[in-house]
Design brief:
The structure holds two protein chains of two kinds.
Chain A lengths: L1 H27 L14 H10 L6 H15 L13 H36 L4 H12 L5 H15 L13 H31 L2 H8 L4 H39 L4 H11 L2 H29 L6
Helix pairs in contact in A: 1-11, 4-5, 4-7, 4-9, 4-10, 4-11, 5-7, 6-7, 6-9, 7-9, 8-9, 9-10, 9-11, 10-11
Chain B lengths: L4 H16 L5 H10 L2 H23 L15 H4 L19 H37 L1 H15 L3 H12 L3 H27 L3 H8 L4 H37 L11 H11 L6 H28 L5
Helix pairs in contact in B: 2-12, 3-5, 3-12, 5-6, 5-8, 5-10, 5-11, 5-12, 6-8, 7-8, 8-10, 9-10, 10-11, 10-12, 11-12
Classes of the chains: A mainly alpha, B mainly alpha.
Chain lengths: 307, 309
């Protein structure tokens, strides 16, 4: 097991470094420096600014400093657009928001999807099964940027039940719509995966044996069928996580929740390179570590994987 | 048991008919299975209708997509509603431009992005996967490790980074989407190549001295076409979703061009002023087309994938 974890780490860490280096060079190949504006700054001022941000040093030293700052202090440097804020400030402000509704959405998608899928498989070819299948097919074409306006249309404009945006410290009524919009398509995918996997498991020999020796139904499902059913779902968690963290950009924009997605798009529109790089790297590190955890979890649960 | 004379006659008739039936090829079989799938056929018809609409629609348009209707500009929410009289069949958008023409333009661009993105993915992914699978060994290991690494990067963020740095244009969007879309395809193709390369006809080709790349192009890739076709159809909606996502954020297609994502974004921004049609028309086209692509892809998979028979 330890060897397997080390092997995975030996891939994950170079990947993260590669991501940092690639985005660093992308940023530096951009036409125009961060301080080029319509009104050119006097040479001396520019020189001082460059010195302050360390831009006068050769590029490999700049890169080394940047990577070193991230690795040792988790420091992404100053924002190029807001003089008084560092990228860390921006992340510290936005990330808790994203984390809060993101984890609710993730939980909702996983628990809801698995429950729906299991019920649909147990009650195959009944009303609830057709509902689950129909729902998971239609949710394919309802990505977050389609769900968000539809939800606002129904719950804010017609029913007037929920506020159409804002955060206000994360009160429940501000979280509901972001969570639903973000999780719907993943909930549907998980439900479909669970259903087909559960059906396959229920038809296998060891379940027949369990039935033959007279175990009650709930016991068969919970202590025998559920664990093998969840294997494909676990391997889907990685892509779902990536999808949700990407989708949070839309949620932040549409519901004005103020998470990192908002700062990312603002940074993209303002050409605030250090902010978008910092967020890209943060998201990359999160994704890669999450995938690592999922892989380890998978290896731990699946008896067929030998390391 | 009573032997029914009529049954026997039917049977002999069937037998004589059987002689006349031609041999069925794999593709013939697949076509038949596909056309028996009602959802797939309906989707194909719907999608063709949308395609025809995007080409013939401009003939009926009373307004171009750039003209501003100054008469109604002051009061879009009442004067800009869809109507035959004013010539705005789908109403107008926030700036007084004709939504009908805008939707046609957006449909064209979104479909183009989807198809070209999928095309890049097919060409690059097939070649890459076939080469990795055919050569195997260390080359395969390195090539697939690169794919693994690229796949674990949150590509939407990198794509936006690319768009910011090199300017927001359709061309850049194509490059960005093309850079990442081929990864899945290359994995699938590699897996198939691994099983194909063990077949006798490849061995025969090697024995007669055919070069490696000729084998890949002439013998391996043609045998992959079925599975490539299936995943290509499923890739098109994926590409459209990616493009719409980016355009929804205002980072993709730029004015005066538009796409479904951009139109949905505009409509979603203005719906609280009562101009609901600005959201619903683009949304309708988006949803129907994506549905159709998914069903066609599913139909093709059922028709071509030998596992599910």
């Amino acid at each position: 097991m330890l060897k397997y974890i080390l092997k995975r780490l030996s891939v994950a860490i170079p990947t993260i470094l590669l991501l940092i280096i690639i985005s660093f060079f992308l940023m530096h190949s951009a036409p125009g420096g961060p301080f080029t504006s319509e009104r050119p700054l006097p040479d001396e001022v520019l020189k001082n600014i460059n010195e302050k941000y360390g831009l006068d040093k050769p590029i490999y030293i700049q890169m080394f400093n940047y990577v070193w700052g991230i690795v040792t202090d988790f420091d992404f440097g100053p924002s190029f657009r807001y003089k008084d804020r560092t990228v860390n400030d921006i992340i510290a402000q936005g990330f808790p928001v994203t984390l809060k509704y993101g984890s609710w959405a993730f939980l909702f998608a996983v628990i809801g999807g698995v429950t729906l899928g299991v019920i649909a498989a147990i009650r195959q070819n009944t009303f609830i099964d057709y509902f689950a299948v129909g729902f998971s097919i239609s949710a394919q074409v309802l990505p977050n940027f389609v769900m968000a306006p539809i939800l606002v249309l129904i719950f804010t404009l017609y029913l007037g039940w929920l506020p159409g945006g804002g955060w206000e410290g994360g009160q429940i009524q501000f979280i509901i719509m972001p969570v639903i919009a973000l999780s719907t398509s993943y909930l549907a995918s998980i439900a479909r995966l669970t259903r087909s996997s559960m059906l396959e498991v229920l038809n296998s020999d060891f379940i027949r044996t369990a039935r033959a020796k007279g175990l009650p139904r709930y016991k068969i499902i919970f202590s025998h069928a559920l664990k093998p059913t969840l294997l494909p779902v676990i391997s889907y968690l990685g892509p779902a996580f990536v999808g949700m963290i990407t989708g949070s950009v839309v949620i932040d924009m549409y519901f004005s929740t103020g998470g990192i997605g908002l700062h990312f798009v603002r940074g993209a529109l303002n050409r605030d390179y250090s902010t978008i790089m910092g967020i890209t790297i943060l998201v990359g590190v999160l994704t890669i570590s999450f995938n690592l955890v999922v892989d380890i979890l998978y290896a731990w649960i699946d008896p067929k994987i030998r390391y | 048991m009573i032997i029914n004379k009529k049954n026997i006659e039917d049977f002999s008739k069937n037998l004589s008919e059987l002689d006349e039936i031609k041999g069925r090829s794999l593709w013939h079989d697949a076509r038949q299975r596909f056309f028996n799938n009602k959802a797939a056929v309906t989707s194909l018809i719907l999608l063709s209708m949308i395609l025809i609409f995007s080409f013939l629609g401009p003939l009926f348009a009373q307004w171009s997509n750039e003209e501003i209707d100054w008469v109604i500009l002051g009061d879009i929410s009442t004067l800009g509603i869809p109507s035959i009289e004013t010539g705005h069949f789908f109403g107008t958008e926030e700036l007084g431009r004709d939504l009908y023409s805008r939707v046609i333009q957006g449909t064209k661009i979104s479909l183009m992005v989807g198809v070209i993105g999928a095309l890049i993915a097919v060409i690059v992914g097939t070649l890459y996967g076939a080469i990795a699978g055919y050569f195997g060994g260390r080359i395969d290991g390195i090539m697939m490790r690169i794919v693994d690494i690229l796949m674990s990067i949150p590509y939407m963020f990198v794509l936006i980074l690319l768009l910011v740095i090199f300017g927001r244009s359709i061309f850049m969007l194509f490059i960005g989407i093309g850079l990442i879309s081929w990864l899945d395809m290359s994995r699938i193709v590699r897996g198939q190549t691994l099983s194909i390369k063990k077949k006798e006809f490849i061995e025969a080709a090697i024995a007669t001295g055919v070069g490696n790349f000729t084998i890949i192009i002439r013998h391996i890739i043609p045998n992959l076409l079925g599975i490539v076709a299936v995943y290509a159809t499923l890739l098109v909606p994926g590409m459209i979703l990616t493009e719409s996502f980016i355009s929804f954020l205002g980072l993709g297609v730029q004015e005066p061009n538009t796409s479904w994502g951009a139109l949905i974004s505009e409509g979603a921004g203005t719906m609280r002023y009562g101009t609901l049609w600005q959201l619903l028309f683009p949304l309708f086209f988006f949803v129907v087309s994506l549905f159709s692509f998914f069903f066609i892809g599913d139909g093709l998979r059922d028709a071509l994938d030998p596992k599910d028979r």
